[in-house]
Design brief:
two-stranded antiparallel sheet, about 5% strand, extended
């Protein structure tokens, strides 16, 4: 075979990723606090950029109920999203085109907040793992939530318990109050609390001092009936009534003193070691409020600084005679500043528009509680707002939303759809899991329902599930099998 060299002309199309387009996509993925940090870095590098004072949270709003009457909600940089039109200032922005996401390999520019942020969306997305926060206690707590809870409803309840944490590491309100605040039953709240009390450090989410010490003794394998009596009488221990305690546990004072020595090795306030009193939950990126005319959705302007271009300085630099290198630098810096301002406006408008649509879809949840969380997918929202699914995914990943029912990740509102023959329509996976849990909680002690029996009972509600699906949901909620529940009932009767 003879090798030869030649020169040929060939036409082909290629995709070009401009730095501006890469930056625009990056901005979509940033939370308000991350965006503020990014803008501060840009201000330090660009002499034409300045950060204005943060605005009150009520400036751009969108009505979740699609009410068109909110005239005071519109502003120059954030129009009324109930009938959103793209700003004229973005006419030359390449990001204004709905298909710009499809012009390149998305993996090139995706910058996930953590290792799981770029995972494909399947089923109930674990949004807790994508919450953006400072390093410290809460990120570690969210990672444990990620591993322990797959049910969106349980994650929402867990969020209320996290909000109730005191500096000591104990929960600062009765479980009944947490259940009322989250709109769930007391049993559901107790089940979530039982999972939270397995988190590290041991003793976290305890109800009180007795509960905190008990959890640590159980973890050590040192919990006995004698210790149980001792913990129930901590007031006597505090008063030094060792002999009385010895009589209660039917032992000697020396045994009580040995038990006291073990208790002194425990941590009565695990939260103080973690510095919970010096940490705050991340500020929400989006705020939902109930108004007389419906639900209003607005950006949290308290964490979102305004971009300002120093036009006076730009005019002075433009009028000044400079060499070619200085002129090129100034022109590029000014163009980048104007482009960044438009890109931030686009990001804010997109975030608000998508958030408003999600709230519009999930108003029943806000008004009636967790059982009314509807099935919702990225595609549903994307079709409603006229954007690509990847855009919706980028915007919702890691954002926190504040609602009258508490703060939660925005992706907690998404849940897979399960076909139903019921008149009310299809159900969400979260609702079906709750149905499985409710049926098991109502079963006769000693006569547990099998997975097959649960399938038939759910089918009577118009939802057809496979037995293995029921088993999967049951395992996700850490519910033992019917045989294990039967054995537990027998052991309880023996005691």
């Amino acid at each position: 075979m003879q090798l030869s060299q030649s020169v040929k002309l060939k036409q082909k199309q290629s995709l070009v990723m401009t730095p501006q387009l890469q930056q625009a996509i990056k901005l979509l993925q940033l939370s308000n606090l991350e965006l503020s940090q990014h803008l501060q870095e840009q201000v330090d590098e660009n002499p034409f950029l300045e950060l204005g004072e943060t605005e009150d949270s009520g400036q751009p709003t969108a009505d979740g109920s699609a009410d068109k009457s909110a005239d005071n909600a519109a502003s120059a940089d954030a129009p009324d999203l109930s009938n959103l039109k793209e700003s004229a200032a973005l006419a030359e922005d390449p990001t204004e085109h709905s298909d710009f996401e499809n012009r390149f390999d998305q993996s090139i520019v995706d910058a996930p907040r953590n290792s799981t942020a770029n995972a494909p969306f399947e089923g109930d997305y674990d949004a807790i793992s994508n919450v953006s926060s400072t390093e410290g206690f809460y990120p570690g707590l969210f990672r444990q939530l990620n591993l322990a809870m797959d049910d969106p409803k349980q994650r929402l309840i867990a969020g209320h318990f996290v909000n109730a944490l005191e500096p000591s590491g104990w929960i600062g309100m009765p479980v009944e109050d947490v259940a009322d605040a989250s709109g769930c039953s007391l049993d559901e709240a107790e089940d979530v609390l039982a999972v939270l009390q397995t988190f590290e450090p041991t003793g976290l989410f305890a109800r009180n001092l007795e509960d905190c010490l008990r959890l640590q003794l159980i973890e050590r394998g040192a919990m006995t009936d004698a210790f149980s009596i001792l913990l129930e009488n901590l007031d006597l221990l505090g008063r030094g009534e060792v002999k009385r305690l010895a009589r209660l546990i039917k032992s000697t004072p020396d045994d009580v003193m040995e038990m006291l020595a073990i208790i002194r090795t425990l941590n009565p306030k695990p939260g103080e070691f973690l510095g919970i009193d010096h940490l705050e939950m991340p500020s929400p990126d989006v705020i939902v409020k109930r108004r007389s005319d419906g639900w209003a959705v607005e950006l949290n302007r308290s964490t979102l600084p305004a971009m300002v271009i120093n036009e006076d300085y730009a005019a002075m630099v433009t009028a000044k005679k400079m060499d070619d290198e200085a002129q090129n630098y100034s022109a590029n810096a000014l163009n980048n500043a104007r482009w960044l301002k438009r890109a931030v406006e686009q990001r804010n408008s997109t975030t608000l528009k998508i958030s408003a649509e999600i709230i519009h879809q999930q108003t029943d949840f806000l008004e009636k509680g967790l059982d009314y969380l509807k099935p919702l997918s990225l595609r549903d929202v994307a079709q409603a707002v006229g954007m690509h699914e990847s855009t919706v995914s980028r915007v919702t990943t890691g954002l926190l939303i504040s609602t009258p029912r508490g703060g939660m990740p925005l992706k907690s509102f998404f849940s897979v759809n399960i076909a139903s023959r019921a008149p009310s329509g299809d159900a969400s996976a979260a609702a079906v899991r709750n149905m499985v849990k409710r049926l098991i909680s109502q079963e006769t002690p000693g006569k547990p329902l099998s997975d097959e029996a649960i399938c038939k009972m759910i089918a009577d509600e118009g939802i057809d599930l496979a037995r293995r699906t029921v088993a999967k949901y049951r395992e996700m909620m850490n519910i033992p099998s019917s045989s294990q529940r039967r054995m537990q009932a027998r052991l309880a009767n023996i005691r």
